[in-house]
User: Which sequence fits this backbone?
């Protein structure tokens, strides 16, 4: 079921304009899972949400699609009677930022890395899917941006929002709830499927691995890790993800170093040993191999 939700979420992102027009989110329900005291993971359609509730107010990481905002607000009210004060966007994609406008209108301040605002404020093109994404309305744009990190001393915790080097996009941030010992990784971590690397948005396959390695240094055996898509994870799960990506990088890079073309690398099926477990989502093996080839070959030109 979690793999289905992850796949559905990103497929909805890819065709979001049509679905928004058709209001085709009626069957989506928002579920919540307690991760730590006053900290929950919400799932519906799109990226996983973190909700941190307490006396200072509610603090949210990502907000899925615009048509789901009312359902998300209802889920929040069911978990806390405090107002939503901050929303962090881990990157610019619409399955993580679609609720910005509605939630901002209720008084929540939208916070993100400066590249998130830059990309949301201009038309974007995702080459991997041939999809043009129009600029977001001004009301949906982050009102607070940072270049490296932002710290929130909130609800008795220290919450560190840290930009990472280009990975899923060039605007990714991880969110570390230090006392709760919870880390939200956004789409630098797809748990259970091959990760999408948005090269058109400055993403990098090597950067995805580097992001995982960075979080592994922050985590201990009790750390709960919220991925951008997929079920809740821990350090062991993230280690497996990192090791899988490193193994696949080695296979694909070896073919590149042999002088194989993009088509020849895809035809060699370097992911075959992993496809049953990781290639059943929206990132099909051939598509994913081509993206990784482009990232690795491009970085070595």
Assistant:
């Amino acid at each position: 079921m979690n793999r289905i939700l992850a796949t559905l979420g990103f497929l909805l992102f890819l065709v979001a304009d049509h679905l928004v027009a058709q209001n085709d989110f009626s069957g989506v329900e928002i579920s919540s899972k307690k991760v730590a005291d006053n900290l929950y993971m919400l799932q519906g359609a799109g990226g996983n949400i973190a909700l941190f509730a307490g006396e200072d107010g509610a603090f949210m990481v990502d907000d899925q699609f615009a048509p789901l905002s009312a359902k998300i607000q209802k889920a929040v009210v069911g978990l806390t009677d405090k107002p939503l004060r901050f929303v962090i966007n881990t990157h610019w994609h619409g399955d993580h930022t679609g609720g910005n406008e509605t939630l901002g209108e209720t008084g929540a301040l939208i916070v993100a890395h400066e590249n998130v605002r830059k990309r949301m404020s201009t038309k974007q093109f995702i080459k991997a899917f041939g999809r043009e994404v129009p600029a977001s309305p001004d009301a949906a744009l982050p009102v607070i941006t940072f270049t490296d990190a932002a710290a929130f001393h909130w609800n008795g915790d220290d919450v560190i929002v840290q930009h990472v080097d280009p990975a899923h996009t060039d605007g990714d941030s991880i969110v570390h709830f230090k006392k709760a010992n919870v880390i939200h990784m956004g789409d630098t971590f797809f748990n259970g499927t091959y990760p999408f690397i948005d090269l058109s948005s400055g993403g990098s396959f090597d950067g995805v691995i580097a992001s995982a390695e960075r979080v592994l240094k922050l985590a201990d055996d009790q750390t709960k890790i919220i991925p951008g898509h997929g079920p809740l994870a821990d350090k062991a799960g993230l280690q497996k993800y990192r090791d899988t990506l490193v193994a696949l990088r080695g296979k694909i890079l070896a073919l590149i170093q042999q002088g194989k073309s993009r088509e020849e690398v895809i035809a060699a099926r370097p992911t075959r040993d992993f496809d049953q477990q990781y290639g059943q989502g929206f990132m099909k093996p051939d598509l994913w191999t081509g993206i990784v080839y482009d990232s690795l070959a491009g970085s070595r030109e």
Observations:
- The longest strand covers residues 157-163.
- The CA atoms of residues 18 and 114 lie 28 Å apart.
